[in-house]
Design goal:
The protein is built from one helix and nine strands. It is mainly β and 196 residues long. The chain has one domain: Porin, CATH 2.40.160.
Length: 196
């Protein structure tokens, strides 16, 4: 059922691209973290975002379909050594944004939904060597995520530069799957969008 919903979303976006006033590609960097109660940048992980976008005719509504990598790096130290766990979570994400314009600036906000396409957790030594992938994989995580997005962009003739924050509202881990099951996604995105 979730696969059918994802396919319908892709079809919706593709048909919208053909009728939109502005549409194009976008990509950039993600600065992500996992949070439980409070968001901090203590365990930030750098990833990427890449996808398609389009706006309706008057530019007040924008949808996107993006591949986005999220996660965090959690540092540990103890009697058996030190290192960090690197959570790598890869999603196909569909933000639905309402857009306001003031001169060349745009402000956008709205919900997003995301489908987890891949996940792993790597244990990395303090010297950078990989100890191996833990037993956590995609089956230990919720495949559906959702949250709120908001940001600002600067419009040019055929491009846009923007900064956006995505605040996850759903716990990433399945109940009872691992100690960090209560964590949620937190992502700051820096992106460049180009018109077709």
């Amino acid at each position: 059922m979730k696969t059918k919903a994802l396919l319908l979303s892709i079809l919706f976006l593709t048909s919208g691209l053909l009728m939109a006033q502005r549409s194009g590609i976008k990509g950039g960097a993600n600065f992500s973290n996992l949070y439980i109660d409070d968001v901090s940048n203590e365990n930030m992980k750098i990833g990427l975002n890449l996808g398609l976008w389009h706006q309706n005719i008057d530019g007040t509504f924008q949808t996107e379909l993006t591949y986005t990598s999220k996660g965090a790096e959690v540092v540990y130290s103890g009697a058996l050594g030190s290192g960090k766990y690197r959570f790598n979570l890869n999603y196909i994400e569909l933000p639905i944004l309402f857009v306001g314009h003031v001169g060349n600036f745009n402000f956008h906000a709205g919900p997003y939904a995301a489908f987890l396409v891949g996940a792993n957790v790597k244990d990395v030594n303090s010297d950078g060597s990989v100890n191996g992938v833990t037993s956590l994989d995609r089956d230990d995580f919720n495949t559906f995520d959702y949250g709120l997005s908001g940001g600002i962009g600067i419009d040019f003739d055929a491009s846009q530069v923007g900064l956006r924050y995505n605040y996850g509202l759903r716990e990433i881990g399945k109940s009872g799957s691992f100690a960090g099951e209560a964590a949620k996604n937190s992502v700051l995105q820096l992106y460049v969008a180009l018109d077709f």
